[in-house]
Amino acid sequence: MTAGRRTGERSEGHLALEGYGAIGEGRSIALSGADGSIDWWCAPNIDSPPLFDRLLDSVNGGCFAITPDAPFTVDRCYRSDSNVLETIFTTETGRACLVESMNSGSAGRLPWAEMARRVEGLEGRMRFGVTMRPGRRGDTVNPYHSAIGDHTVFHVERVLGLFLHSGGVECHWADEGVTGAFEVGAGGREVLALIAGEDEPLVVPSIAEIDARIETSDQEWRTWATTIACQGEPRAAFVRSALALKLLLYSPSGAIAAAPTTSLPERIGGSKNFDYRYAWVRDAGYTIKAFLAAGAQAEAKAAFSWLLDRLAKVGFRVCYTLGGDPVPPVQEWAMPGYRGSQPVVTGNQANDQSQHGVYGDIFETASCFVGSGNILDNASAELLSHLADECADRWRMPDAGIWELPEYEHYTMSKISCWQALARAVELADAGQLPTTCRERWCRERDRISAWIEKNCWSEEKQAFVMHPGTDRLDASIALAVRFGFDGRERLAATLDAIDRELGAGPFHYRYSGMEKEEGCFLACSFWMAEARASLGDWTGARARLDALVDALDRGVGIYPEMVDPQTGEFLGNLPQGLTHLAHIMAQSVLAEEPGPG
Question: Residue ranges of the GH15-like domain (predicted)?
Fold first, then answer.
């Protein structure tokens, strides 16, 4: 997969979001721009304060740039079946390849964060400039040179960082950062690296060790990719989405981050900017199902165990920190934002909301886990039984809905999710995985929810299930009702037609009515629509939809955002977005089930 030839040009200091690739190792994720600049890295953890934040502050933000000192064009792609990223720069004097890796070791994740960047000369000669400037919100930046080789140590808040480079790179400290330059010819190579830890001593590896770990890390990714059971074609796109989800699995806990970024706007200049560096129960549930579909049993088990542990120890919440605590309240930061889009925030208001969809997410996850041949322990079974009882008690109450809206309503999708939770609970009880004491009550409430939806949420005028009773607005998330097995095949098919008519924009879809004025199209919805069409038997139409989506998103290196501008194809929102990638995996998995001729 390749991004094609690009210049890496910035507009008012900003790269287009599709100009970024993501590298990570299961603990942190960095965004690397097409011009060789790392503009975002929360170190040493995904939810740490950013060490590099040029993404949100093009003038004063921190970055780690390795950029040709002459005009250049770019070809970028990930190595096959790997999260090691390669960028080939071409100038009038030569060609060189920048290889980037967030390194791991042969025994798994390293006990520190290690960013490795190697420049290999391919043809002629090329000169590069180097800038390594941490973000300026730290309380101290304290450079010095130690006696163990040429390296620079710096402190930013609680982060201890170490900048290292090979002998051909000339660097010095200036203006609270490192600047330097080097030149490579055909067959030559130079390596630059960062080591980071938080309130902990750091080892000082040699450049040779760091360089070698690029290849070790690449092999580890390739080995993992061989375990992926690709469902359908094309394999490369399927595995790329699986690799993106693997980046978002926070290995210290098993939590799944929604995205590694905060405050990337859903519309340029708009105010719908959110912090997604947390673990949503919804996203975790869908991602676990995607991992199971891809045959990644270990990742699915780790994520499901984390989810059940948090429900038992912290309580029922919409989202958690990656460490498993309640998400902090929203705090605004005095930063310009991506292309002037404010506010820049940390924290998330969803933490305090009531969302009935979480019940369905949890039980669908448990059902998929068991359906893959796994079993539930007694404590987990008891916890799930209590949650089913709670769902049976609460489904009649309004909530914030799947889209986390401030207006509490009787959202149709929330009711469908409650139906889904109780339907799965009954199935798990019948399979001997849950206690059967309350089974009959779960059956009664499941059927009452179904009848309530049919009576109150269907619009004869729209020929569709509406967003909630009393409105004529539509909600694209209702496409998920097909996956959940909700009753009413003909009405669901008609609803999909209505969603296409009113929310569709080319291959894309808005989340719900009226959003074309506030944000871009939500990519997961369009993948859900393709999946739903396939599940209802429209294999040809579903395949055409999926192909059109993947083609339209082929603007970068294969990582997908939350949204796009349907007019320009420009990426919007936080990225890489786990919900988008897992929706892609599920759509391709369902299409792989298409019956053969005859």
Answer: 236-544
Range of the domain at 290: 235-591
Return d(Cα 598, Cα 593) in angstroms, integer: 14
137 and 269 together in one domain = no
Domain boundary among 178, 197, 226: 226
Give the DSSP letter string of 189-234: EEEEEEEEEESS------HHHHHHHHHHHHHHHHHHHHT----SS-
* Structural domains in the chain (count): 2
Q: What is the number of other CB atoms lying within 10 angstroms of the CB of residue 472?
A: 12
Decide if 568 is inside a domain.
Answer: yes
Please say which residue of 226, 249, 265 terminates a domain: 226
CATH code, 282: 1.50.10.10
* Tokens found for residue 470: 């009393």
| Pairing of the two strands 144-145 and 189-198 | unpaired
Residues 545, 423 share a domain: yes
Q: Under 8 Å CB-to-CB from 466, ≥6 apart: which residues?
A: 412, 457, 458, 459, 472, 473, 474, 475
Per-residue model confidence as pLDDT tens for the chain (598 residues): 334 444 578 888 899 999 999 999 999 999 999 999 999 999 999 999 999 999 999 999 999 999 999 999 999 999 999 999 999 999 999 999 999 999 997 766 788 999 999 999 999 999 999 999 998 654 445 544 443 456 788 888 888 888 999 999 998 887 678 999 999 999 999 999 999 999 888 888 999 999 999 999 999 999 999 998 887 778 899 999 999 999 999 998 888 999 999 999 999 999 999 999 999 988 888 888 888 888 888 888 888 888 888 888 888 888 899 998 989 999 999 999 999 999 999 999 887 788 898 899 899 889 988 888 888 999 999 999 999 999 999 999 999 999 999 999 999 999 999 999 999 999 999 999 999 899 999 999 999 999 999 999 999 999 999 999 999 999 999 999 999 999 878 999 999 999 999 999 999 999 999 999 999 999 999 999 999 999 999 999 999 999 999 999 999 999 999 999 999 999 999 999 999 999 999 999 999 988 876 5
Report if residue 298 sits inside a domain.
yes
pTM, entire model: 0.94
Q: Are residues 311 and 389 in the same domain?
A: yes
Residues 59 and 99 in one domain: yes
Q: Domain check: are 464 and 502 in the same one?
A: yes
